Amino acid sequence: MLEIAMVSAGEERFPASCISRIREVAIINCRRCNTPDELVEFAGNADIIWMFGANVAVKPEALAKLPECRAVLRSGSGLDALPLEFCKANNIQVFNTPESISESVAEHAVSMLFALARNLVQFDRQVRQGQWDSSGNQTKWHLSGRTLGVVGYGRIARTVEKLVSGFNMRVLHFDPWSENSTPLDILLKESDFVSLHCPLTDDTRNLMDDDKFSIMKKDALLVNTSRGEVIDEAALYRALTTGHLGGAALDVLCDEPPLPDNPLLNCEKVIFSPHAAAFSADFEKNFWYYSAEKLVEICGRLEG
User: Fold this and answer.
1) Which residues in the chain come in under a pLDDT of 70?
2) Is residue 173 annotated as part of the catalytic site, yes or no?
3) Is 275 a catalytic residue?
4) Model pTM?
């Protein structure tokens, strides 16, 4: 049987049903490895490396010492933490499970957009401070009939499009790999709201910079549930404080947690959540179910 090394946690972290499903097709051993050397010692004979969360051990120098390794699975949607070039050069297949969190992240992105557009966080603060002002003068945005631009058009972005369909919104999308993609500059120019769903790559790092923000409509709203580094945070701060952008909702930042001197923390036009978009009441069930099924699929591929 193939051997799987889970290197992010001990077996007690996983539902028994998940481990049982995997053991139908493979041998699995679980231990948190905090360094590449620990990974090599633990997973020296593994055919598949399985991980989740931040990557602290799955480095090129470790994979180079795993002669049997033919695949890496990172549970969740992001692959930016993995040594993709090394894997490609050494015929190591890389997998993830975006389907496990796509609905939750999409719901979170839409919730953040609605909270921004309706000033919910600001109104809540005012009421708690004894200010009861229902004039609505502070609400500049309306959802129905407006244009939402999604940058990246994978599972999460498509789910966002589905969720906002009942609000009679026009949706544009930009994705180099998608048919009917709208050029990014046109999308930014025409969108009232922009939601970021692209992976972090060399091409998307600091994608949203001064030039891109200048293209966006005045008072446009920005939502980011992808990766913090997709945004040049200094440029975002300038766009907000000069009055060009109306607001931003950020689930992800370049530094997590944010540094105390990050000026965005003092900007009232920004609302935050702590990289929590993937989590919901169904997170545990979905995350480990899809992980187990993906591992079964990978084993089938490797043995086929």
Assistant:
1) 136-138
2) no
3) yes
4) 0.92
